[in-house]
Amino acid sequence: MRWSRQQVQDDGVGTEQALPGLRGLLRSVRTPEFAGAVFHEVEARSVLNRVPGGSPVPFRWTVNPYRGCSHACVYCLAGPTRVLMADGSTRPIAQLRVGDAVMGTERVDGLRRYVATEVVAHWSTRRPAVRLRLSGGTEIVASGEHRFLTERGWRHVTGGWCRSGRRPRLREGDMLLGPGAFGERPAARHTAGYRRGYLCGLVRGDGPSPAQPDRCFPSDRLALEVLGRAHHFMSLEQRRSRAPAGPTMAAAGRVVDGRIAPPADHALPREPDRVDTAIGWPRHAGEDWCAGFLAGLLDARGSVARGELRIGHTDEEVVGRVAGALHRLGFRFAVEPGEHGERVVRLAGGPGELVRLVALAGPAVRRDVGGAPVGGAARVVAVEPLGRTEAMYDITTDTGDFVAEGVVSHNCFARGTHTYLDLDAGADFDSQIVVKVNVARVLERELSAPRWAGEPVAMGTNTDPYQRAEGRYRLMPGVIGALARSGTPFSLLTKGTVLTRDLPLLTAAAADVPVGLGVSIALLDRGLQAGLEPGTPSPEARLDLVRRIADAGLPCGVMVAPVLPLLTDSTEALDALLGRIAAAGATGASVLALHLRPGTREWFLAWLAREHPRLVEPYGRLYRRGPYVDAEYRRALGARVAPLLRRHGLASSDGVLRGPPGASELARAAVHSPQPEQLTLL
Asked: Considering the entire predicted model, what is its pTM?
């Protein structure tokens, strides 16, 4: 195994990071794609580990190819970079906050489409700046590590090294995917011309549609947003003319069942008023009036499906004015026959043109591109290092991506300084990863020994066999092959999606020996999960892993652990999580409360004091007797969970996990730990 650009430490180099007394050490390796981590490659003398006597788990043997786990990634954008929000507006990435809804993408029926997604983490750092220039004039300042989606997959801004070797980078001419450039809003935002255009479009577009006679606005909330703007614009028009206030949009704007109701009889105008003047057709329609007119019609009558905008009306003059306004502002369109005598103006050009129109016109009720397919946006013109370091920002979303300056951008699972150890020893080994490079060869020898009785072997019970480093070392294919050839049943527990690489091997092995697979999913809250398990796959990614395992015909249990008292243990939270687990195709689930061993306890309580100080005292009471939560709490949790497991079909009446014949014990093994106290947050 050879790593590119590696640095090998001998006995006299890097002694501050060496593991003292480590037997069989071949070398210690540092590599750029795992910043801050040292991999200690060892020749192990034995890899079959016997579980200590008295353990309640249903297996006696384990195999751990790794001891420790590290994650590190840094993807960042300059603060002014605009991000597409879920409502169609844009906002600089520096101004985003946790909980904001932005536009991301996901694959639906094999096709990548736009979907709304939530910001679950937001942070800043300083990185060397690189300018990316695109066709059409868009410029994006990012770090060299940042990735954008191209027709050829994800590509880094600049070259370098990543966990799979030399990282793929952007090149001149590459097509980036996304909706396209956002465009610029008019400098004079709400001029008199814009206001009159908006009122004209709103009033002429309002009223029952032949196709939808009872609808004008989607909801009371949206109607009030529109009415607030209309009332403000009418007030400005009245002050501007210094005319006595006649009946305004407010008089004609009572909200009834989510629409603007007709004015009361006593409010009817007795003489020409400012409403008549405001909604009149202009002699010369300038760009401001056209933008306002389209915004008003969008608020009154526009409809969007899969990123395509349509505006329908029975009045030919209104249809003609819509077409004229779009033409004046540089948008392509088509006029088509609609239902019930309507003529429909359809905006051409796909999601990108809708985003540009929303940015230009600025309706009160935003329109998004959700459901639209993702297409090409712009080609790379140049990648230019700027020779300076700048403040950079990044976010984490549920979909793992977002739209920045009109192109699809990858996001970070955790800060670059976040490394963690999937080992019960705690933070002492957070950057020291022991790799048993000869694990397959030694395991083959031990399994062929006459004394080996072919008992079930569990993996993932101490450290995750499918952590990031497995993508580089590829130890598990050899382990799976050795177990299958010896006729040894085995189980795997992981939170790593790298397992999907080996699904064909696991399926083949299952034809010869019982195989059980388990996935660890503790909670659905991505914000909480990102803080507790930085750098690990998201809950959605793990649920997708369960689906892939089930689709391959293999039994898959889920370890719902650790359950955090007073944070993730409510009936509602557990019900939602178990429901998603069942829907993904899991054959069973096991629910365990948090254990706080020495090392983990200190780290967790420090996190708790920082993030949830009100819970420090209750946790002190719950864990007053040691690493295990109070027995009364465990009983209460069990009583709460049992009916939920039955409701979602994840346990039989006696609590035994269900799975295909011959695999129930392995499925059970896949979601248990050899020593419960070893179940840490990591």
From this structure: 0.46
